[in-house]
Amino acid sequence: MPIKSYLVHPLEGKKILVAEALTKIEQCEVLPAENKDLLILVTETNSKQEETDLKEKIDLVKGIKLMALVAGFNTPKKEKYV
After folding, report:
1. Whole-angstrom Cα distance, residue 10 to residue 26?
2. pLDDT digit string (tens) for 52-71?
């Protein structure tokens, strides 16, 4: 299950618009920075296809100037051995 975090730099004056748009996407959690005009975006998906679909949805959000991946983790499901 990939979990990724990004720093999202919105265009000037678009922080609230971008935050609202990203929050509407199910796999996204958005945290506004208090001292800078940027957002922290955390995503969680269940498969590579879901990750691809999510990337396409994020690419459609208007007002994003730059989005930088900060960290990515993949925690595979543990299999039970009998």
Report:
1. 20
2. 999 999 999 999 999 999 98
